[in-house]
């Protein structure tokens, strides 16, 4: 039995996912503040009070919460499995930029806008790529395990 190299047994220092989690956390805070500002403006405590701008702001925030946590979790698992840092940064940046574009596009107009479409498109691409990539990593490692 060979001795394990300390590099093989240590968890890598995580630098990618925390960066994008922090950026996304700040964006979520900003989206929440937009909702609060509109609630105060229209004197609405719950629901949207029939105000389209408040309803849109609430959907932007909800849509963010629907996609970002799982996508960041998938990104973190890829980082834990020591995937290339440049690719993880590319995916993290695409997620953050996608969420910025989606929020901007949807808050500016109720119609489908370039920002909203590109934003959700980037989000779906990152979600799909991270999920498929992680599945491949898991299947490759499972295939290499002794029976």
3D architecture notes:
α2 packs parallel to α4 (85-108), α3 (52-80) runs parallel beside α5 and α4 (85-108) packs antiparallel against α5. Helix content is 78%, strand content 0%. The chain starts with 5 loop residues before the first helix and ends with a helix. It has helices at 6-9, 16-42, 52-80, 85-108, 114-144. It has a single domain (15-142), classed as Four Helix Bundle (Hemerythrin (Met), subunit A). With 147 residues, the protein is an all-alpha fold. The protein has five helices and no strands. It is elongated and about 65 Å long.
State the total count of DSSP E strands.
Answer: 0
The chain-level mean pLDDT equals: 92
CATH architecture annotation = Up-down Bundle
Number of domains: 1
| Secondary-structure element order, N to C | HHHHH
Helix content: over 70%
Shape: elongated
Provide the structure class: mainly alpha
- End-to-end Cα distance, whole Å, is 18 Å
Largest sheet: none
Question: What is this entry, summarized?
Answer:
With 147 residues, the chain is mainly α. The protein has helices spanning 6-9, 16-42, 52-80, 85-108, 114-144.
Secondary-structure blueprint of this entry?
Elements: H1 6-9, H2 16-42, H3 52-80, H4 85-108, H5 114-144
Helix pairs in contact: 2-3, 2-4, 3-4, 3-5, 4-5
